[in-house]
Amino acid sequence: MSRGQEISSRVLTVPNAISMVRLALVPVFAILIVAHEDALALVVLAVSGITDWLDGVLARSLHQISRLGQVLDPLADRLFIFVTLLGLTWREIVPIWLVAAILARDLVLALTVPVLARLGYGTLNVSQAGKVATFALLYAFPLLLLAESGGAVGTTAHVVGWAFTWWGVGLYWFAGAQYLVQVRRLAVGG
Fold first, then answer.
1. N or C: which end of the chain has fewer CB within 10 A?
2. Cβ distance 174 to 133 under 8 Å?
């Protein structure tokens, strides 16, 4: 969010509508990945990635930053990451430890929600590291799926996909540590 922009309580905004479409695409993707419809699943992931970028740009440029949007956007990101991880794990494209590493971080941060609520705070703003981590993971997963196609494209997608995965997981945990530091500062009043 740009400094100085007001956060609205409006529900019906263009960025919120885009985020709702992204949320609706989550079960579509889940069905496609389970059905081994990889080409269509990749299209859905691409559309999700583009709309993730677009809703943020439009929220800022149209001055439609809203409380609901601040919840919907990261929710759609988390659901896509979770469903994609489960689908790729079910298909044995990624190992179970990757799911555990990402879910463990989210569970640790979920434990801070009651602390923040008790202190009178809502959710914390997404850090730059958190945004980059989400970006890396949301680009890693389609590449890992594309790696299943084999050949030179598959080999390249495999290498680049795992590079994005490692960076994403590392930054995901780094951002989680940043959030924990913020919660601690708020809890001790400093």
1. C
2. yes
CA distance from start to end of the chain: 23
pLDDT 10s digits, 70-127: 888 888 888 988 999 999 999 999 999 999 999 999 999 999 989 998 988 877 778 8
Q: Which of 182, 172, 170 is nearest to 124 (CA)?
A: 182
Q: What is the pTM of this model?
A: 0.81
Contacts of 106 (CB under 8 A, 6+ apart): 78
